C-alpha cells in the first residue's frame, strides 16, 4: 500500500518544493496551500516561543501530506504500516491522518528527526506531555486553518498567545472541550493533552 502513494516520487531534500509537488501530483492543491500557510505560521510561532525554526517549518509543510490517502483507506493503510489504531480513529478515520503523515514523512521524504515526526503526529489532537515544537505546530494548524472564513476561536487564541504558548493552546483545547457534544469523536489524546496542560498551568 505504501508504494501506491509514494510511487515514483523521490524527495530532493527541498521540503517546501517537494511537498507542493507531491500533493499537486494527487490533485491536492488546496491542501498544499494550507500546508504552506501552516509552515509560515509555525516558523513565526517558533521564533516567538523559542524553538527550532527549520523544524517547525518542515513539520508545517509535512503535517497534512496524508491527505492523499482516501478516508476509507486510512485504517487499512495504518494497519499495514503497523500504526496503532484507536477505537475513535476507526469510528472517525479522518483523525488518524496525523499518524499517517508521520509514515509518509519518514518513508517518502526521508524525515528521521523525532521532534519533527512527533509534531506532525499530534498536530490535530496534541498529546500528553507535548514538546514545545508539538504545541507550536498544533497551534499553527489551528490559526492557519483550512476552512473558509475566520476561525471562531482565533481572537481569544491570539490574545492568549501574549500570555504564553501553553495558555494559547489551552484556549483552543477548552474551545473544543466546551463543544465536545458536537464532535464526531473525543480523541483520548486531546483529553490527555488538555488535562496535562491544565495541571501544569493552574492560573
Helix segment tally: 12
The count of β-strands is: 0
Residue fraction in strands: under 5%
Radius of gyration equals 16 Å
Helix share bin? 55-70%
> What is the count of structural domains?
1
The CATH class designation is Mainly Alpha
How far the N terminus sits from the C terminus, by CA atoms, comes to 48 Å
Output the CATH homologous superfamily.
Hypothetical protein af1432
How would you classify the quaternary structure? single chain
Average pLDDT figure? 95
Describe what you observe in this structure.
- The chain has 203 residues and is mostly helical.
- The protein has a single domain, classed as Hypothetical protein af1432 (Orthogonal Bundle), CATH 1.10.3210.10.
- It is 62% helix and 0% strand.
- The protein contains twelve helices and no strands.
- The chain starts with a helix and ends with a helix.
List the helices and strands and how they pair.
Layout: H1 2-6, H2 15-25, H3 29-49, H4 53-62, H5 74-80, H6 87-91, H7 97-107, H8 114-121, H9 132-143, H10 154-161, H11 165-178, H12 188-200
Helix pairs in contact: 2-3, 3-4, 3-9, 4-8, 4-9, 7-8, 8-9, 9-11, 10-11, 11-12
Features:
203 residues, mainly alpha, Hypothetical protein af1432, 12 helices, 62% helix, globular
Amino acid at each position: 500500500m505504501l508504494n501506491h502513494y509514494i510511487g515514483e516520487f523521490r524527495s530532493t531534500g527541498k521540503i517546501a518544493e517537494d511537498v507542493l509537488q507531491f500533493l499537486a501530483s494527487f490533485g491536492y492543491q488546496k491542501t498544499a496551500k494550507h500546508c504552506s500557510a501552516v509552515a509560515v505560521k509555525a516558523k513565526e510561532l517558533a521564533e516567538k516561543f523559542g524553538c527550532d525554526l527549520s523544524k517547525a517549518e518542515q513539520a508545517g509543510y509535512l503535517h497534512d501530506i496524508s491527505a492523499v490517502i482516501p478516508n476509507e483507506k486510512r485504517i487499512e493503510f495504518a494497519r499495514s504500516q503497523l500504526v496503532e489504531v484507536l477505537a475513535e480513529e476507526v469510528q472517525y478515520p479522518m483523525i488518524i491522518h496525523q499518524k499517517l503523515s508521520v509514515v509518509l514523512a519518514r518513508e517518502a521524504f526521508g524525515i528521521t528527526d523525532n521532534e519533527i515526526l512527533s509534531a506532525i503526529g499530534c498536530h490535530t489532537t496534541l498529546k500528553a506531555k507535548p514538546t514545545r515544537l508539538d504545541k507550536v505546530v498544533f497551534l499553527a494548524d489551528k490559526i492557519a486553518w483550512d476552512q473558509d472564513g475566520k476561525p471562531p476561536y482565533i481572537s481569544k487564541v491570539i490574545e492568549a498567545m501574549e500570555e504564553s504558548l501553553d495558555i494559547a493552546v489551552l484556549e483552543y483545547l477548552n474551545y473544543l472541550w466546551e463543544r465536545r457534544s458536537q464532535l464526531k469523536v473525543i480523541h483520548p489524546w486531546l483529553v490527555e493533552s488538555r488535562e496535562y496542560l491544565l495541571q501544569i498551568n493552574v492560573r
